[in-house]
Amino acid sequence: xxxxxxxxxxxxxxxxxxxxxxxxxxxxxxxxxxxxxxxxxxxxxxxxxxxxxxxxxxxxxxxxxxxxxxxxxxxxxxxxxxxxxxxxxxxxxxxxxxxxxxxxxxxxxxxxxxxxxxxxxxxxxxxxxxxxxxxxxxxxxxxxxxxxxxxxxxxxxxxxxxxxxxxxxxxxxxxxxxxxxxxxxxxxxxxxxxxxxxxxxxxxxxxxxxxxxxxxxxxxxxxxxxxxxxxxxxxxxxxxxxxxxxxxxxxxxxxxxxxxxxxxxxxxxxxxxxxxxxxxxxxxxxxxxxxxxxxxxxxxxxxxxxxxxxxxxxxxxxxxxxxxxxxxxxxxxx
Length: 334
Known about the structure:
By secondary structure, the chain is an alpha+beta fold. Strand 10 and strand 11 form a beta hairpin. Helix 1 runs antiparallel to helix 2.
């Protein structure tokens, strides 16, 4: 009996020791798994910041390339401002014409890796984290806006600039800017069918953009014209991207235009109708106007201003646009 009791006590004591080892091993496994989760989260967070910096840097450098010499220094600054530790660097690649590729990475002294990871306690190797983005510029391939299309015979866009010549574009039938076929579409060659009130959606290369005949603009434009007027009177600028066509066909409700691209017009004044918001600074006595710029009386219709170079930013898939008429869209390609 004494032997049995002694053996039982000895067995329970041995089991207690085995359980302690098992718990210790499990604790190491759990701590390791937790440390790995924290490390992976830190890596993903860092990479997200680097991707933001790469996207912003690529867009900024691409925009600078359109305005003049490419300013590659912009990428480094945006890489840092988009990271919590302000310790990032960017490398800019301009080897592909019309494209800017920015590669960002973390920095620590002369090495590119994350520090203070739990895995460092296990003598794990350095973790390199980086991101890349490519941006490019292209003329817009489509858009929506004020339902007025302009003929490419009306102006010379090679002089488009912030100091371009101020000019009047008349689009009453029979004037010099009714389009290549003269009075082919009577009653106003430039008005487009609306996709929503005072808004037309157009696509480059799609022939048959329907016309909306008549001297006056389509319905629903009162609010937009009032906003334009208030902006100019407050000292602001109104810059509108108009679709441009090269050919037209048909007449009246069956008329249509072939859109080739988009040009940006800085508006000084207009006469889209008679009285109220449909007329603004369209006479020789108005500020900045002259007899050569002023719109004729009666049923004449015109828009006054200057064609400028204009850059806008967007994102998404890279879709080739239309003719380069001074308006470009800076987009993320990948």
